[in-house]
Amino acid sequence: MKKPVIVIVLLVVVILAIGCNDSDDLPISTVSSPVLTPSTMPPETPTPTPSNTPLPSATAIPTPSPAESPTPTPTQTPTACEIQRDAIQVAISGYHDTNGEWPTADGVSGDISWDKLIPDFLAEIPSLDSTCEWQVNNNPEGTVCLLKPC
Question: Does the global pTM surpass 0.85?
Fold first, then answer.
């Protein structure tokens, strides 16, 4: 390791001597170069030696994905019963808002009187009425309920 350092130092001295020698004003003897002695030489850096130490096994770290919008849950197609229930709810709520009572025989919860809803609040009697038996519920008041499940 000492030989390459000495060779490099000598090359630097020669280059400096040649570069300074271009001037006719200075004699060669006035060019001085630093003298490196063992005490002024830069410390040697030990060369790392390869070892046979196994590297720790790498565990996969999940890469966070860029901000994505959440995947929407597919909307289920409503059944005929649900579609009719929603239409009846709109109709009985509209009737109540207009008349202050529910569209039943006595104006309170119970079996729906379709003649009070048709044609102003509903186009026709729902096709599932004969099997479902729609009612105006009393708990919670005014919600559509089924006397018999469809």
Answer: no
